[in-house]
Amino acid sequence: MRKTRLVLVDDSLFFRTFLTQKISVERSFEIVGSFADPVEAVGHIPLLRPDVMIVDMEMPKMRGNEFIRKVLPRNPNVKALVISSLSGNVFDAMQAGAIDFIAKPNSRSNFDEAQFIEEVIQKIKIAAIAHTHTQEDYAKARPEAPLRPEPAAPSRPTSLSAVSSKSIIAIGASTGGTEAILEVIKHFPANSPGVVIVQHMPPVFTKMYAERCDKMCKMSVKEAKNGERVNRGTILIAPGGDRQMYLRQDSGGYYVYLVDGPKVSGHCPSIDVLFESVAKVAGKNAVGVLLTGMGADGAKGLLAMKRNGAHTIGQDEESCVVYGMPMEAYEMGAVSQQLALSTISGAVLRKFK
Fold this sequence. Notes:
Distance between the termini: 53 Å
CATH class of the largest domain: Alpha Beta
Number of helices: 12
Largest sheet: 7 strands, parallel
CATH architecture of the largest domain: 3-Layer(aba) Sandwich
Radius of gyration: 20 Å
């Protein structure tokens, strides 16, 4: 059996040693290089031919996102996985083509070592089989869309005549989803129906991600708070952690309900939980979108939405980083339309015109 070749790039000798010892127990892995200096590592990547690079974000001579931008274009078969302390720079690494990221343990706090190593091993395996897509790729697929759109001059709002107070959009994603979600929502006009999102992500990073998206979107994007209203022009992202997010409705309209709960479909928050609640509350007034990710979370929920009259969209294999969740949904008949990522935003908006 061919082993997955790994390279570690982290300025901390302690962390590189720790990681080497812990992941070496996985017999399908082979660590072929370990570097404290990212500048030195750049020249060794073509010689070592790793399948996956594990990259720190904050290093003295070169940040992880800069390192990834230098390496990936010249080595298209190499996949990058980021392990980072709390930093919004991880999303720059995702934009550069990194497959996923993991929160680095804080030495000042207790952490579950076994759970952390299990997550690292699982994400290495996913990265090894994933497809690399960058925002540059998405811009090429949609040439009229700039990578970082400048604020537009005031103009007449896009006509969305079929939007009602009951209209809502629900989106779910996992591996590769940070850039895929952004590629969808950045094209929504400011008067779009409210949007609720679950993106599998560690706690705290969801707030950073929402703030990043808010700067790049016409709609207002924020991390959801319990009881917050799902208003037109607003996107709410479920906070990472131990709470599930449900859609609820009262006389004032839709709102989100966050409650502590066990993992569902392997995740908390779970896309299935959100989608199933949207199916019950919004029915035919909703559009559901399931994007790239490993596993099956969201497939059953998307099927529930379709059965209750919602229009459902699944991302196609070619444009996915990992064609797992959308494939599961497609195979069980949950997908009304299977589309390339660059066409999904337009398809969603057409349901409200």
